[in-house]
Amino acid sequence: SCPLSTRCCAPPSTAPAMNCRAEVLEVSVEGRQVEEAMLAVLHTVLLHRSTGKFHYKKEGTYSIGTVGTQDVDCDFIDFAYVRVSSEELDRALRKAVGEFKDALRGSGSDGMGQISLEFYQKKKSRWPFSDECIPWELWTIKVNVVNLANEQERQICREKVGEKLCEKIINIVEVMNRHEYLPKMPTQSEVDNVFDTSLKDVQPYLYKISYQITDSLGTSVTTTMRRLIKDTLAL
Amino acid sequence: AMDTDLSSQDRKDLDKFIKFFALKTVQVIVQARLGEKICTRSSSSPTGSDWFNLAIKDIPEVTHEAKKALAGQLPAVGRSMCVEISLKTSEGDSMELEIWCLEMNEKCDKEIKVSYTVYNRLSLLLKSLLAITRVTPAYRLSRKQGHEYVILYRIYFGEVQLSGLGEGFQTVRVGTVGTPVGTITLSCAYRINLAFMSTRQFERTPPIMGIIIDHFVDRPYPSSSPMHPCNYRAGEDNGAVYPSAEDSQEVCTTSFSTSPPSQCVFTVTKAHFQTPPPVVTDTLKVPVMGLAFSHQLSSSRLSYQPAALGVGSADMGYPVLFAGGLNAAHPHQLIGPGKEGGIPPVPSQPAHGTQADQERLCTPLDGVHYSAATPSSSEDTETVSNSSEGKCSSPHDLLETIFIRKVGAFVNKPINQVTMANLDIPFAMFAPKNVELEDNDPMVNPPESPEAESPLQGSLHSEGSSGSSTGNTHDDFVMIDFKPAFSKDDILPMDLGTFYREFQNPPQLSSLSIDIGAQSMAEDLDSLPEKLAVHEKNVKEFDAFVETLQ
């Protein structure tokens, strides 16, 4: 089952005391399922972390645009999810996920890696210091790519991964429902410190996506073997 | 004392929010069970009519039914709004799949700001609902509806009744929002174990037609009280007119939305519609406005016809298929052909409920064959016309819908031609495919070890590649719901049952073969002197290596 743990990562030392909540999800998928599985999770998170575009008026009030949604069917997984109707956002996520998938496939990878979606706030600093990015929510998806031998296994994998993703969606929604810290709704001058206002139809909270691939097997084995021999010989 | 805590304006706003939240909740749930992909567009310009800043289309019939169920009340303690999703087969057997509950409990959050925080959290909750409606088992069922079964909905208000979900149902919480008058909670209880349904579990329920609308405040559970057919004689005015624009007068008056309402544009995909709307309403006694018989609807993809027709105390379920009304002004993608090449839409032909004996066999263009289902009662026969495009003429005949019995509703690989159609059990198509061959199921009766020369060889002998079927056709059938305890493994997406089945006949290990074993041992012994010589030669390298470990 999904090990969903919550831990607070330490904020940068210069930042005001603020906890960044971190959620970790783990999936085991076939190579060709990586993209769809990642997109499903990332889009589900961003669905909850995007609003309509803000339009500020005089008197300090603002109105909010409308967020549309659409169903996405997966081709390699028996699964469907809902995403925000924004082609720009979809493109951005696909680009990041595509890079992650390529890195996972690349040499030096044993099929394990993780992709992170971090929501942050910008804190403007005075010159010459650059703006700080203070994360307030971090989603990490750990991926393990499995290789399957035959079509029957693949068929089972389609279904199993579909079921697993259903569990992940439920987990994500649970977290969202906790109504924990969210950045305050900003004034017009502050809106770019909280939201990504670059998209034309929706407004997600400021986010960044990063990933890392686990070291290839070779390196880790050599180190371990060395240690073993050393200990055994008691030199 | 309450009023001093909550200003009257806040109270009014809150009530409004809760009311529209309830209506939108129903829309999301019903739309998620129509069997089609939903798509709405984002709009950067604020519109006053998009509640909770989300583009959720309002199907007029659905709003109408929801409002009727609520009857001006709001969810409160002990008065929950429930949307029941059920499945109904072509033979009239029905089964509850899910109950979505919008409840209110007494836990109040006095500090929370109504017009801002509550509103935004309700918006978030609707997004969660959008996500969760796609992950319960009924979603996939509803995407495949049309041939053997349809998905129906029913809204009721009052006490939650979960007994129809069978044993072991699961619950998923969508979320909660605290308000000064109580905490709103939204959850779903859903039936599991859809793939295996024994005949014992389901009684033959009276056929469902039309809608069940039971709004009962103090009434007992529906099964113990007579149903009232809602007699919307839509025919009187040539189709019920639904106040689709009624709610646009009630704009979302939030503190941050002040622009006038604007048109929402929705994408239409798979526009498979016949233009003239079917006018089949006049003969229908049941409130089949939900059956897409209102004049607003311009297509009915698959019409739904109960096996035995009879009005009166029959329960009626809303075929969600058709609930997706198409307002001519607001085309909407809720209706479209199904994945399996569903039945083409109906040309506008009124159905008259009198000619019960008349049957019509329609051969749709895509070659799917129908077998007629015979209505039992005469006068009250209500059917929906269904025909291929133009092939069935005679607009005054009673056109009947028919369902095809396909093997393998949930099986990707259709197996032997055991047609469950031969078995006269409810939900036969969902029953285990090899119900009479259960003896052959390896999980029930493990295969006997074949006779062999040596005990080792015998038990490990394989007839084929490991993991695949050894000729036992049952292995081709993926048991969807077999979940052995403690067998889940995140690393390998395969549970214990599957693993067992796949690897129950692994190939013989070569090292267990006596000959080969002896052979390799001999080889090893022979090669030893050689190897030793090589190591002697490289002794310097080994010394150097040992040095590095110091």
UniProtKB/TrEMBL annotation, chain A:
MF (Gene Ontology): protein kinase binding
Alphabetically ordered keywords of this record: Autophagy
One GO cellular component term: Atg1/ULK1 kinase complex
UniProt keyword Mitochondrion, yes or no: no
Biological processes annotated in GO: autophagosome assembly
Primary site of residence: other
InterPro entries tied to this protein: ATG101
Annotated localization: Preautophagosomal structure
Family, per entry: Belongs to the ATG101 family.
Protein's UniProt name: Autophagy-related protein 101
Source taxonomy: Eukaryota, Metazoa, Chordata, Craniata, Vertebrata
UniProtKB/TrEMBL annotation, chain B:
InterPro entries per the UniProt record, alphabetical: ATG13, Atg13_N, HORMA_dom_sf
Subcellular location(s) of the protein: Cytoplasm, Cytosol; Preautophagosomal structure
Domain Autophagy-related protein 13 N-terminal: 96-196
Protein name: Autophagy-related protein 13
Low complexity biased stretches: 458-471
Keywords noted in UniProt: Autophagy, Cytoplasm
Record's keyword annotation contains Ribosomal protein: no
UniProt keyword annotation of Cytoplasm present: yes
Cellular component, GO annotation: Atg1/ULK1 kinase complex; cytosol; phagophore assembly site
Record Pfam families: ATG13
Bias-annotated ranges (Polar residues): 373-391
Chain intervals for the UniProt region annotation (Disordered): 333-356, 368-394, 438-472
Lineage: Eukaryota, Metazoa, Chordata, Craniata, Vertebrata
PANTHER family (UniProt xref): AUTOPHAGY-RELATED PROTEIN 13, PTHR13430
Family: Belongs to the ATG13 family. Metazoan subfamily.
